[in-house]
Amino acid sequence: MKKEEVRKSIEENIVFTFARSGGKGGQNVNKVNTKAHGTIPLSSIRGLSDGERTIVAQKLRAKINSENNICVNCDEERLQDLNRKIAINRLVNWIENAAYIQPKRKKTKPSKASKEKRLNAKHIRSLIKQSRQKIF
After folding, report:
1. pLDDT per residue over 47-84, tens digit each?
2. Alpha carbon of 121 to those of 20, 86, 99: distances in Å?
3. DSSP 33-72
4. Buried-state track 96-135, b at ≥16 Cβ within 10 A, e below 16
């Protein structure tokens, strides 16, 4: 995945609509459209391979509508421009996290020193328990 190309294509192709948002702001909330609702077609995001695109579509299926657009909302700030930037960053993070593939774990065996350390600890614990026993 090419992160810079993904970010650039999102910034170029995302379409924002704005609405009145709730929360703090007093009279400002009732007059100004600050809530940002962004949509972008999944197919217009460059920088993803076909395999990554299918994985992203599968992992973000709750955020993808019937027209195959990814939707993101932000109404955390009182300024429209800040909400727009937060929404873009959130969308980029979603895509980066969804496209990340965990590398396979390499199986390893415990070393000889770690085995000896474990057995020594068991032996010491055994001696502690033996010393608590009553002798008849």
Report:
1. 888 889 999 999 999 999 999 999 999 988 888 999 99
2. 65, 52, 44
3. EEEEEEEEEGGG--S--HHHHHHHHHHTGGGB-TTSEEEE
4. eebbeeeeeeeeeeeeeeeeeeeeeeeeeeeeeeeeeeee
| Three-state secondary structure call for residue 83 | helix
Nearest to 2 by CA among 104, 102, 95: 95
Label the pairing between strands 15-20 and 69-74. unpaired
**Residue 26 gets which letter from DSSP?**
T
Burial category of 72 from C-beta neighbours within 10 Å (exposed 0-12, middle 13-18, buried 19 and up): buried
Residues 6 or more apart in contact with residue 68 via CB below 8 angstroms: 41, 42, 43, 57
The answer to whether 95 and 57 have CB atoms below 8 angstroms apart is no
Residue 26: is its pLDDT beyond 90? no
- Tell me the one-letter amino acid at 89: N
Q: Positive or negative CA dihedral for 90, 4, 69, 29?
A: positive
Residue 3 pLDDT greater than 70, yes or no: yes
The β-bridge partners of 41 are 69
